[in-house]
Amino acid sequence: MFRGQFRHHLDEKGRLNIPRRFREIMQERYGGSGLIVTRLPECLVAYPWEEWKKLEERLVSLPSDLPEVRLYMRFFLGSAEECFLDRQGRILLPVHLREAAQIEKEVVLLGLLDRFELWNPERFGQHMAKAQEDFDLLSRKIAELSLGGSPS
Q1: What is the pTM for the complete model shown?
Q2: Which residues, 6+ apart, have CB-to-CB distance to 18 below 8 Å?
Q3: What CA–CA distances, in Å, run from 5 to 28, 101, 117, 118, 150?
Q4: N or C terminus: fewer CB in 10 A for the chain?
Q5: Can you tell me the distance from the alpha carbon of 92 to that of 152, in angstroms, rounded to the nearest whole number?
Q6: Which residues sit opposite 37 in a β-bridge?
Q7: Neighbours of 91 (CB within 10 A)
């Protein structure tokens, strides 16, 4: 599972070196080198192929006649790009995704178990400050969602 936080730099061509530990997880757990990268409102998110397929299976069952579903699909799926690791363990981040996430040179990679996010460092800092400020409220919500369990 993807865990931890890493800082890396894009090269002049927009390639990002995926952390060695993340590459090892991709190989050991998923047996491959392909990722789907798409956008969220605040950052990018990268899924190994197998996790993306699971997500697609859930999304295809949503009612496409609902305007909210169509809008979500356009935003999230419409931006998705296949990214392959090269021999040096890098992926080329498409320009439109870099621009959407305001990623220029430095990137924060954040492991989230079955996927990882790619952040502009300043946006990431702001987002994490908000999470720290709201942590008690977030903890209560997670406990509710996990049927009364207490996340620590």
Answers
A1: 0.89
A2: 26, 85, 89, 90, 91, 109
A3: 20, 17, 10, 10, 24
A4: C
A5: 37
A6: 46, 81
A7: 22
- Give the pairing type, strands 90-92 and 44-48: unpaired
H-helix or E-strand spanning residue 69: helix 67-76
Which tokens in the block code for residue 39?
């956008």
pLDDT tens-digit map of 29-58: 998 768 999 999 999 999 999 999 999 999
Q: Are 53 and 44 in contact (CB under 8 A)?
A: no
Which DSSP state fits 88? T
Question: What distance in Å separates the CA atoms of residue 150 and residue 136, rounded to the nearest whole number?
Answer: 12
Closest CA to 44 of 115, 113, 143: 115
pLDDT tens digit string along 86-97?
A: 999 999 999 999
C-beta of residue 38 within 8 angstroms of C-beta of residue 76: yes
* CA distances, 54 to each of 26, 50, 114, 121, 136 (Å): 16, 7, 11, 29, 31
Count Cα neighbours of 73 within 13 Å in the Cβ-side half-sphere: 14
